[in-house]
Design goal:
2 copies of one chain form a homodimer. Chain A is α/β, with parallel strands linked by helices. The first copy, chain A, contains 12 helices and 16 strands. At the A-B interface, helix 9, helix 10 and helix 12 of A face helix 9, helix 10 and helix 12 of B.
Chain lengths: 396, 396
C-alpha cells in the first residue's frame, strides 16, 4: 500500500477530534482521534485541535480579467454597464493583458488560501476571440493536479449582437470549455427568446451545462427567468443550469417571487450570489426553505470593473453573512456552506466533502467553530488540495 | 529644541514624496522630500515610498460590549431588538463581564491597526449603572497619551422606560462622559417628544454634544428626525449633534428625503453610518452633495449582538465603499475620508490631519494610492499616535 498522509487531532466543522488518513489523493478514512495508528512510513501532520474544513469552492469568478499581482489599476470608469464593458475592452488592448499570466497569479492565490475548486468565466467575444479561454486553459493545465477548475465560455458582449460570437462559443465548447455562459438575454441581447434558444441549442449540441448571468431587474428579470425555466423543462436541463446574480428575485412582489422560487426548486436550477451590498439579492432563507441550491462567489477580483474581491473564500462567506444579516453560529455555518458544499453541488464538482472516498481537499485554521472562521478569517495553517500539501508560499 | 522624529520619503495620500518632522507630539513640518535635513540627534524613520495616511478615526463603536480577546461567543440569540438586548443583559450577568478589560483589549487592537481616535458608546442603564463608563474610562486613562477617546453615555434600554436612567446619565456626564447618547425616542421610549426633551435638557445642563442612535424606519424615523432638528434649532445645538444609523434616510420618498437632508445640512447635524449590507442606509452621494458630514464606524465588534466588525478601519472603509457601490479611485478615497477626516469633523476631534500643527497621528502602508489601501487593507508598516511610535505588538 502506498504511504499515507495523516492529519492527527483536528476538529471537522468544530466537532470532536478526528484523525484523517489521506491515500492516493483521496480521504481514506476519518476516525475518532487515536482509534487508528499511522504506519511508520506515513507522513503525519499535527492537527493540533484546529478547525478542519473541506477545501473551499469559488463558484463564480473571472480569473481572466484580474489585475492581481500587477500594479494597482486606477479606476476612473463611468457608472453604466456599457461604460465598464468598453473601458475593459480598451484597457485590454492598451495594457498587453495576458489571460494566462493573470489567471495563474490569482489561481495560485486562491490555492494558498484554501480554495481547491473554481468555476471561472472566460470572456468570449469577437475582439478577444478565444484568447482568454486559451490563457485560462493553460493555467488549468499547469495546476491540473492541485486545482479543480471549470471554465465557462462567457459571451461578455452578448450572443446575438456581434456576428461570429455564436461560432466562437461553439469552438470554445469543443476546445476545453466545460460550461456555456450567457448574459442578460433581454437587456443585452434585446431578444430574450432568440438569445436563450441559441444558448440552449449550443449547450444541447455539446452536452454542456449552462451558467447565465442574469442582472435584469424586477419584472423583466422574472420574465426572462420564466423563459429560461420553460427551456430547462422542455429540453431536459434539470440540475444543469446555474443562474448567477438573479437580482430580480430580490425585487419582486412576494407572491411572484415565491412562485418563481418554487419553480426554480422544482426544475433544480441553482442560484449564485456574490451577495453584493448595493443591489437586491435573492432571499437567502426563503430560497433555502424552498429547496433551492444557493451558493457564493466573488465575481471579478480586482479588475477594471471592481477594485474589490479576494481569493479568500472565508471573506466571501463573511460578506454573504453580512448581506443576509446572518449572525447566529448556525447561520454563519450556512454562509460557509455557500462557499463549500452548496457551491460544489451547484457547480457539480465531484467527490467533494469531508468523508471517506472524497477527494483530499482539506484546510486547517485556528478557530473553535465554523462561525468563528467566517467572522475572523484566520490564516490558513494547512492546505491540502487533491492530496498535495500546499505550502503558504506555493507557486509554480 | 527637543529631538524630532522624521518620516523620510513617504507619500501623503499617494502624492509626491515628503519628509515629515514630528516634534513634541505635533507635526512640525511636512516638506518635499530632501528639502530639510534632520539633526544628528533626531530619530529617522524610512518612509520607503509608502503611502502616508493620517491616523484612522473610529466614529462609533462599543468597546464595553466586545468579546474581543475572549473565547468565541456562540451566538444563538433571537432576531428581534429586544431579544438582543435581553440576551446581552443575561450574558453580562453570567459571564463576569469586565468592561475595563474588554475595552482595553479592543482599544489596543485598534491602535496597532492605526486608529488613533475613537468615539465609543458605553451602556448606561439601571442594571449596569455606571460600571461600563468606569471600565472604559479606566482604559481611556491607561491609554490617554496614545489614544484620543470620546465616551458617549448611552442609554441602551431607553431613557424614559426605566426610572433612574436619567439620573444615571446625569451622573455619567458629570463623571467623565464627553457626549450624551440616546436611542430611538419613538420606537424604544414610546414618547419621542418627551424622550428628546430629556436628552436635550441633560445635554444643555452639562454643555455636551449629543449622539443619538436612530434605527426608526421610514416615516417614523423622519418624524423623529424632524422633532430632533426642531430642538437643534431652538436650543442652538448646530454642529453638536450626530445621528447614528439614520436608516430612515434610505427609505423615504425622494422629495421627503431631499428636504430632510437639506435641513440636516443647514443645521450642521452629522450622520454616522456603519454601512450595513442588510438594511437601508443614508444616500452617500446625495448627503455629501447636500453638504452633510457623513462618517463611518463599526458599531459593535464581536459582541453578543454581532460576530462581525474589526478594529481595522480600512476594512470599514472597504465595506462603506461596497455598500455605496463606490469603485473609482476618487470614490474609494471618499470612503476613506469617512474613517478619517469626515469622522474627525463629525465627532469634533481636534488637531486632526496631515498638516503642520496637527497632532502627530500617522500610518504607513504598502500601497500606491488611498484606493488601493481601502481595497487591499495592507498590513500597517508604521503607526504613530500622538507622537508615540506604536509597534505591531504594542500593549500596556
Amino acid at each position: 500500500m502506498k504511504p499515507a498522509i495523516w492529519i492527527i487531532g483536528a476538529r471537522p466543522f468544530g466537532g470532536d477530534s478526528v484523525d484523517v488518513c489521506v491515500r492516493a489523493r483521496t480521504i481514506d478514512s476519518i476516525a475518532p482521534h487515536g482509534e487508528k495508528t499511522p504506519a511508520a512510513s506515513d507522513t503525519v501532520v499535527d492537527g493540533a485541535g484546529m478547525l478542519l474544513l473541506p477545501g473551499f469552492v469559488e463558484g463564480h469568478t473571472h480569473l481572466d480579467k484580474t489585475t492581481w499581482g500587477m500594479p494597482w489599476y486606477r479606476n476612473a470608469v463611468g457608472p453604466r454597464l456599457v461604460d465598464r464593458i468598453e473601458n475593459e475592452r480598451r484597457w485590454r488592448a492598451e495594457s498587453g493583458h495576458d489571460a494566462a499570466e493573470a489567471s495563474r497569479a490569482l489561481a495560485l492565490a486562491f490555492l494558498r488560501q484554501g480554495t481547491t475548486r473554481i468555476r471561472t468565466h472566460v470572456d468570449i467575444d469577437t475582439d478577444a476571440g478565444l484568447r482568454h479561454l486559451e490563457g485560462v486553459a493553460a493555467t488549468r493545465a499547469a495546476l491540473a493536479d492541485v486545482l479543480d477548475m471549470q471554465i465557462v465560455a462567457f459571451p461578455q458582449s452578448g450572443v446575438t449582437t456581434r456576428p461570429g460570437t455564436r461560432e466562437l462559443l461553439d469552438t470554445a465548447l469543443r476546445s476545453g470549455a466545460d460550461v456555456l455562459g450567457a448574459l442578460d438575454p433581454a437587456a443585452i441581447d434585446g431578444d430574450p427568446a432568440l438569445s436563450l434558444d441559441i444558448t440552449f441549442a449550443l449547450a444541447t449540441k455539446h452536452d454542456k451545462p449552462i451558467d447565465i448571468h442574469l442582472h435584469e431587474p424586477g419584472d423583466l428579470g422574472a420574465f426572462t427567468f420564466d423563459l429560461l425555466l420553460d427551456r430547462v423543462k422542455a429540453l431536459g436541463f434539470e440540475g444543469r443550469v446555474v443562474v448567477s446574480h438573479a437580482f430580480c428575485l430580490g425585487q419582486l412582489p412576494d407572491a411572484r417571487r415565491h412562485a418563481l422560487l418554487e419553480r426554480i426548486a422544482r426544475l433544480n436550477v441553482a442560484l449564485l450570489t456574490t451577495a453584493p451590498a448595493s443591489v437586491a439579492v435573492p432571499p437567502f432563507r426563503e430560497a433555502r426553505a424552498a429547496g433551492v441550491t444557493l451558493f457564493g462567489g466573488n465575481d471579478g477580483i480586482r479588475d477594471t470593473w471592481t477594485p474589490f474581491g479576494s481569493p479568500d473564500m472565508l471573506e466571501r462567506a463573511m460578506l454573504i453573512a453580512m448581506r443576509f444579516d446572518l449572525r447566529r453560529d448556525d447561520d454563519l455555518a450556512a454562509a460557509f456552506a455557500c462557499v463549500s458544499s452548496e457551491a460544489a453541488r451547484g457547480c457539480g464538482f465531484a467527490d467533494y466533502g469531508l468523508a471517506a472516498g472524497m477527494r483530499a481537499d482539506l484546510v486547517l485554521v485556528d478557530a473553535e467553530t465554523v462561525a468563528q472562521a467566517v467572522a475572523m478569517r484566520p490564516a490558513r495553517r494547512f492546505v491540502m488540495s487533491n492530496g498535495t500539501i500546499i505550502p503558504a508560499d506555493f507557486t509554480r
